[in-house]
Amino acid sequence: MKRDSRLSGVLHVLLHMAEQGTPMTSDQLAKAMQTHPVVIRRILGGLRDAGFVHSEKGHGGGWTIARDLAEITMRDVYDAIGRPSLMAMGNRTEAPGCLVEQAVNAALDSSFQEAEVLLLARFGEVTLAALAADFHARMAARSPTTAQEHIHG
Fold this sequence. Notes:
With 153 residues, the protein is mainly alpha-helical. It is built from seven helices and two strands; from the N terminus they run αααββαααα. A hairpin with a 5-residue loop joins strand 1 and strand 2 (62-65).
């Protein structure tokens, strides 16, 4: 089963935008993310609707972060991208006739629900400012040449 990496990708894009400090075009962001500009525009369009990013057309235009990084949590971004499924696992059959499978499903469902509550709570505690600070700490721990290479990788 393919994992959904949209949240990771969007957070990555937002941190690149924050680091740049100036408007970035969809083409620039697509290059940094190794994807197509249309994918970037689709993702950032939803974030624009949520008020997290802003776009300007024309020369010198592009995408910018519209709010302070300390005001945006991972939960906010997760919600803005449509709340994709957090669990890759699921029940073999949703409405089984077998009583054994019903017992298994009940245990799995309650476990998945509890895990999701905890995960979403944690997402609500982590701001983009905290992610940016972590990035800067990691960059400071590297040599200047190696750090510059990892900004774009």
